[in-house]
């Protein structure tokens, strides 16, 4: 049970980064289907950062520096790919869905390519550092393992989700961002710089999502790299999670845990055939579809996606 | 009038391409007054006000505010000059509360404190007499509440000059009264209020002065106390201009379409059609006159089966008496339905009810062969109820409607498809093959291009690449080629040059001569008066009059168009 919960929390963390990143982007009116690719790109960036730092300080790596440097790298790489998406969809007004899919295909491919250059010799010690938990966790038994037994990225994810919820709902910046996603024309008329808000939201959202992929590789599976496929799969799950939690980052924490649980239960349960495993792994998507059906039946205005999600904004079109 | 002038417009001209929207307009706005800007559709009143609000920028002339020339290039600039405009389509965010909408985009750099903002808004509301729940979400609000939020939004940004674009169009009489009270309170407070309107009764009631615009020009600004509705209507519509349109007297008219008590609620919850009744006859052109948005569009769409009506009926009289029934326009099921209703007979006069002498049902095959041989006849004209029928059902009932909608590329044609494919939108159901017949529509496309002089590189050019006039010709051509019994056309000449317009007028007259019942929604009164046989006038979703187009006077129609019963005492 402890193993199950600990693993569920880890998968939840991956999904939570992706989900919060996507929520921020969607709140600006941009459906970013490039998130899976951007999460891959964040992984590549983070791994590169880790490898660079470890090769410099392999004797005595500092936990804090390692975390900071790889975090910045992961964020920047992911944000860079997000920037391409932003340029295409905000400035050039390309179709968001097509652009997003292209970004995902590019991102996962480019990550496999980049990772072939990264020196992975130091990943094992780095991975141990990343997942090092608070010292007193062990002394608290199962409870300690579940609540305190994770690496810093897990707690950072929760903090990011909470900060994001606060900013969106309680600050002027959040009000303006939501206005941009609901009705850019209204926001524009009210003197809000629509383009700037969209760019910043997409860049920050992408950067946050990128941390998810990196966390998975470096912390959860301790730096063992095969290919970008698994992270891409988490990316799609994160997008489904956004719908499931109705665009609310604080609900994302709980939703991610549920999705993570569904994902991991298939591996933890004994006596299940591989067919049953695949069916259990499908559950999050089934739940998402049910949520979509339920919300559209009740047609509650509060639980709908941002009204201008997916629509390009031309100022001249008034 | 010794009030100070706040805004002065000097020789303002605004063009859109070749069209002059405003020509050499000079007028002024005074402090603490309510000024009505009155005019027909397309007279340029909204364009003129949009130049004050920073939506458009004048091509010539200048706007003087506080003795200096004001450059207003964006709504933000307008706010710097304390001018705020409330547009017809509200710019509000549905999922935000009233307060959030009001503060949106303001107070950059200050601490975000919605509570403090709410106190300020409440004080303002008290001063002017607004009734509003600031924590209510916009999507839960009525139109009137949304309008109130828009007005507060403008006042919150410190506007001293408020421009309202047709503010009463979607309000109930009680709501209009409340709005007027608020406007009077603002005038009392020294604010200037400009109302764009075409409702004469409201002009008389609320305003201190009236500026009348006609065809982009400023006719006069008069003191309301020194004028009357008749004089204003005269200024608004101008002199009658006779157009040289051939208009034969209607021949062999017969009732074709009867509309009874049509009532329809719009998306905003207001009545867009209010108990509309009229008859349309074959061989005549029935004109529908009215200010844009008075329900014309919804009326035609309702007849065509595009709306769920609240109440009322649409009945189509199919001239079938003593004609054989065929499968060309009727399905087998419809034939059986008519047989059961006792509408059919054999050639020798015996009733046909789908049974033999012994009362046994005839086989499907027998009935089919009887109909195909032309041995079954209608006893009388077929009466078809169209209420609650979809366009497809209407077509399957054998009703031959043609509809030229106002929104050509939205409802009439598919812009990205070529002319042939657009022809096929009406014919793709013909035949039984899985493959569509492309030859016939291709021929039709060529025929239309030739007879209507459509300027196009070929039949395979995407319709959206054609000019407005040519698009319209393709649409009208297709609709007429369908051989309609009722032809409905909404603003078919909008945006067309003189020659194309006359071509369309002649096509409509041609249809009338062929015994089609033509319903023509127009905006130019001179055209309506020279083309139509009868003119029905609508205002605010109601029929306000039916006049004989040959004898009616322009100002008479002008008065009917502006006659709304939302009079506030």
How is this structure best described in words?
The complex is a heterodimer of chains A (318) and B (569). Chain A has helices at 2-27, 35-56, 63-91, 96-115, 123-130, 141-147, 152-170, 172-182, 184-189, 194-220, 229-244, 249-268, 274-298. With 318 residues, chain A is an all-alpha fold. Chain A has one domain (2-303): Orthogonal Bundle (ABC transporter involved in vitamin B12 uptake, BtuC). The longest helix of chain A is centred in the N-terminal third of the chain and has 29 residues, at 63-91. The radius of gyration of chain A is 19 Å and the shape is globular. Chain B has 569 residues and is α/β, with parallel strands linked by helices. Chain B folds into 4 domains: 5-237, P-loop containing nucleotide triphosphate hydrolases (Rossmann fold, 3-Layer(aba) Sandwich), CATH 3.40.50; 241-319 and 388-400 and 484-552, Rossmann fold; 322-380, no CATH class; 409-483, no CATH class. Chain B contains 19 helices and 22 strands. In chain B, strands 6-7-8-3-9-10 form a 6-stranded mixed sheet, with helices on both faces. In chain B, α6 links the parallel β7 and β8. Chain B is elongated, with a radius of gyration of 28 Å.
Task: List descriptors.
heterodimer; A: 318 residues; mainly alpha; ABC transporter involved in vitamin B12 uptake, BtuC; 13 helices; globular; B: 569 residues; Rossmann fold; 4 domains; six-stranded mixed beta sheet; 19 helices; 22 strands
In total, the number of domains of chain B comes to 4
From N to C, what is the helix and strand string of chain A? HHHHHHHHHHHHH
Strand content of chain A: under 5%
Please report the two chains with the greatest interface, counting residues with C-beta closer than 8 angstroms to the partner's C-beta.
Answer: A-B, 21 and 20 residues
Overall tally of structural domains of chain A: 1
CATH superfamily of the largest domain in chain B, by name, is P-loop containing nucleotide triphosphate hydrolases
CATH topology of chain A: ABC transporter involved in vitamin B12 uptake, BtuC
Discrete helix count of chain B:
19
**How much of the residues of chain B is beta strand, in percent?**
15-25%
Task: Profile the largest sheet of chain B.
Answer: 6 strands, mixed
CATH architecture of the largest domain in chain B: 3-Layer(aba) Sandwich
Q: Please write the CATH class name of chain A.
A: Mainly Alpha
Structural class of chain A: mainly alpha
Rg over alpha carbons of chain B = 28 Å
Cα-atom radius of gyration of chain A: 19 Å
**Discrete helix count of chain A:** 13
Q: Class of the largest domain in chain B in CATH?
A: Alpha Beta
Give the biggest sheet of chain A.
none
Mean pLDDT over all positions of chain A = 90
> First CA to last CA of chain B: what distance?
25 Å
Low-confidence stretches of chain A: none
């Amino acid at each position: 049970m402890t193993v199950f919960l600990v693993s569920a929390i880890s998968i939840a963390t991956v999904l939570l980064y992706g989900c919060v990143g996507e929520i921020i982007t969607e709140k600006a009116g941009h459906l970013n289907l490039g998130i899976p690719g951007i999460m891959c790109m964040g992984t590549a960036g983070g791994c590169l950062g880790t490898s660079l730092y470890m090769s410099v300080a392999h004797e005595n790596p500092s936990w804090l520096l390692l975390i900071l440097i790889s975090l910045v790298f992961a964020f920047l790489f992911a944000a860079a790919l997000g920037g391409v998406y932003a340029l295409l969809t905000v400035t050039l007004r390309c179709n968001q869905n097509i652009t997003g899919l292209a970004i995902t295909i590019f991102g996962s491919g480019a990550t496999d390519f980049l990772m072939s250059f990264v020196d992975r010799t130091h990943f094992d010690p780095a991975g141990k550092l990343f997942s090092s938990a608070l010292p007193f966790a062990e002394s608290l038994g199962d409870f300690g393992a579940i609540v305190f037994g994770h690496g810093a990225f897990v707690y950072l994810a929760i903090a990011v989700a909470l900060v994001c919820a606060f900013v969106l709902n309680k600050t002027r910046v959040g009000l303006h961002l939501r206005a941009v996603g609901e009705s850019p024309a209204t926001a524009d008329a009210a003197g809000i710089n629509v383009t700037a808000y969209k760019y910043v939201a997409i860049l920050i959202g992408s950067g946050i999502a990128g941390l998810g992929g990196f966390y998975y590789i470096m912390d959860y599976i301790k730096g063992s790299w095969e290919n970008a496929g698994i992270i891409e799969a988490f990316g799609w799950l994160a997008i489904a999670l956004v719908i499931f939690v109705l665009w609310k980052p604080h609900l994302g924490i709980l939703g991610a845990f549920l999705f993570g649980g569904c994902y991991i239960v298939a591996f933890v349960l004994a006596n299940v055939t591989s067919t049953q495993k695949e069916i259990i792994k499908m559950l999050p998507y089934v739940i998402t579809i049910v949520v979509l059906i339920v919300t559209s039946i009740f047609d509650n205005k509060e639980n709908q996606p941002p009204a201008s999600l997916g629509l390009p904004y031309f100022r001249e079109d008034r | 009038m010794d009030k100070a002038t706040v805004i002065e417009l000097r020789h303002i001209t605004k063009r859109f391409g070749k069209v002059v929207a405003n020509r050499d307009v000079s007028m002024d706005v005074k402090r603490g007054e309510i000024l009505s800007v009155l005019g027909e559709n397309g007279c340029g009143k909204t364009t003129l006000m949009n130049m004050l609000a920073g939506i458009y920028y004048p091509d010539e002339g200048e706007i003087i505010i506080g003795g200096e020339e004001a450059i207003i290039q964006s709504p933000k600039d307008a706010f710097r000059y304390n001018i705020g405009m409330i547009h017809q389509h509200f710019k509000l965010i549905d999922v935000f509360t009233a307060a959030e909408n009001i503060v949106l985009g303001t107070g950059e750099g200050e601490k975000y404190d919605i509570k403090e903002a709410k106190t300020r808004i409440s004080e303002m509301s008290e001063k002017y007499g607004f009734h509003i729940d600031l924590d209510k979400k916009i999507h839960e609000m009525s139109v009137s509440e949304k309008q109130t939020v828009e007005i507060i939004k403008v006042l919150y940004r410190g506007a001293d000059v408020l421009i309202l674009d047709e503010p009463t169009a979607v309000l109930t009489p009680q709501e209009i009264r409340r709005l007027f009270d608020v406007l009077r309170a603002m005038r009392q407070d020294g604010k200037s209020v400009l109302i764009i309107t075409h409702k004469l009764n409201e002009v008389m009631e609320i305003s201190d002065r009236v500026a009348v615009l006609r065809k982009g020009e400023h006719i006069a600004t008069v003191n309301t106390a020194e004028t009357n509705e008749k004089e204003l209507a005269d200024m608004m519509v101008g002199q009658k201009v006779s157009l040289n349109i051939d208009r034969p007297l209607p021949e062999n008219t017969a009732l074709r379409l009867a509309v009874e008590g049509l009532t329809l609620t719009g998306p905003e919850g207001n009545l867009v059609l209010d108990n509309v009744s009229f008859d349309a006859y074959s061989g005549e052109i029935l004109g529908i006159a009215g200010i844009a948005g008075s329900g014309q569009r919804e009326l035609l769409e309702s007849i065509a089966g595009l709306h769920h009506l609240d109440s009322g009926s649409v009945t189509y009289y199919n001239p079938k008496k003593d004609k054989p029934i065929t499968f060309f326009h009727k399905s087998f099921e419809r034939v059986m339905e008519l047989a059961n209703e006792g509408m059919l007979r054999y050639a020798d006069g015996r009733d046909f009810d789908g049974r033999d002498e012994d009362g046994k049902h005839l086989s499907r095959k027998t009935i089919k062969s009887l109909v195909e041989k032309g041995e079954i006849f209608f006893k009388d004209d077929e009466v078809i109820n169209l209420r609650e029928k979809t366009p497809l059902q209407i077509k399957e009932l054998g009703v031959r409607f043609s509809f030229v909608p106002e929104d050509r590329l939205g409802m009439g044609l598919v812009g990205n498809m070529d002319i042939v494919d657009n022809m096929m939108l009406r014919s793709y159901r013909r035949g039984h093959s899985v493959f569509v017949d492309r030859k016939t529509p291709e021929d039709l496309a060529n025929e239309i291009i030739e007879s209507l002089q459509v300027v196009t590189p070929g039949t395979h050019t995407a319709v959206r690449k054609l000019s407005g006039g040519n698009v319209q010709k393709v649409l009208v051509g297709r609709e007429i080629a369908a051989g309609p019994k009722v032809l409905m056309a909404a603003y078919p000449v909008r945006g067309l040059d003189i020659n194309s317009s006359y071509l369309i007028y002649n096509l409509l007259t041609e249809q009338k001569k062929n015994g089609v019942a033509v319903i023509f929604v127009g905006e130019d009164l001179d055209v309506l008066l020279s083309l139509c046989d009868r003119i029905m006038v609508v205002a605010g979703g109601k029929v306000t009059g039916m006049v004989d187009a040959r004898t009616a006077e322009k100002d008479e129609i002008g008065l009917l168009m502006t006659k709304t019963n939302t009079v506030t005492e």
